[in-house]
């Protein structure tokens, strides 16, 4: 990739993907619901194969939560909090709730509140029976009482379940089905030895902004091999439980004819409608069906590796095709496509910095985070060959694994003159997408003008009738060229 300057380093972090020991942690006041509602819920959850933690010990509880209980909260994917009439009278329950809200922020757990014969506003505002409880609690420890109030407010602000009237058995079944739906969300394989993912996810989550109840389209762009698809899969896994349906249309590049687009529409509908095949016979009919069937569902759709505007027009055409709260994520090598289709936000995936490159390469070349003794200089040469591309670092690392120092030196001499074929094939796709004039501009800049002043380069190439301003814009949009102001 041609560039006018080096990439600014960014912070490194390996992806932290939690492995849950429990599907559900049940938080409840034993005196209120242990032998009735919570027992019915626990039994139904376990009968449906949901691994649930419940504190069964009827012991004299001390002033602090036992370490094992804290660990169980940390190891549970969902925390079901049963707010009952006497919940706030238990400091144990309130301490437990504070820990749960902390875990939500730190580990990504999800709170599912159940308001069992209590008004959610009483929990949120500490009125009714909750107000009575806090009269004494504030006298005992005002600072702790404030933390408990904040935890109650945070948890009760989350959309949950309210049992006021009706059969408990029906209510328990609905809650269980909801948890099952969340647990069965599609998990996409993102591979191992991922480096720098947490930073991408944090930035993308702020752009996606799930708090906004509107349809939002987000574009992810960058050069081939930079990790766009992997990032899209990771963000999909992180958010999928919040949607009624998910579809990940992977690697749709070159799918432009009617038959290919019709097949993509069918896959989209099949994914969202849980396996029900829709009989559609042309792409225009497909648009009508997508609008009719998905307008009432909150969906997450990822369209991966888009290279033509028609792919977006026939699959995720307009915002009003979808239900409020839906999110559409597009990955592409061409930022201009995102601009034309009017994304709410775009996110450019940049090359890895030196520390991230060193860690990712070492994970593949040495099967550990740091290089082996004697290989540091060779490591630097390999990283320089890869230019911060995750795909290149992975391919080169695997290629050089378990080779001697002389074999490394020989291989790097060859790689410094000619790219590894697998890497070259990925980058070639972007180059082949240029017209002849754009290819000429790219090659001239890469060979003769890398790092030079843009105006100077433009004057030289304009003398060759290359229409440089237009050509440079195309190269920048396709992430083949970086121009720094």
**β-sheet strand percentage:** 5-15%
Q: Give the strand tally.
A: 12
Through-space gap between termini = 18 Å
What structural class do you assign from the helix and strand content? alpha/beta
Identify low-pLDDT runs.
Answer: 1-17, 57-63
Task: Give the overall pLDDT as a whole number.
Answer: 86
Globular, elongated, flat, extended or rod-shaped: what is the shape?
Answer: globular
**Main β-sheet, spatial strand arrangement:** 3-2-4-5-6
Helix content: 40-55%
Determine Rg (CA atoms, Å): 27 Å
Number of helices in the DSSP assignment: 22
Largest sheet: 5 strands, parallel
Summarize the structure.
The chain is of the alpha/beta class. It has helices at residues 30-33, 37-47, 67-74, 91-107, 120-125, 129-140, 142-156, 168-183, 197-208, 228-239, 258-272, 283-294, 309-315, 335-340, 354-365, 376-386, 390-400, 405-415, 421-432, 436-449, 454-462, 468-477; strands at residues 2-3, 22-27, 52-53, 76-83, 110-116, 161-163, 216-221, 245-249, 299-306, 327-332, 345-348, 481-482. The radius of gyration is 27 Å and the shape is globular.
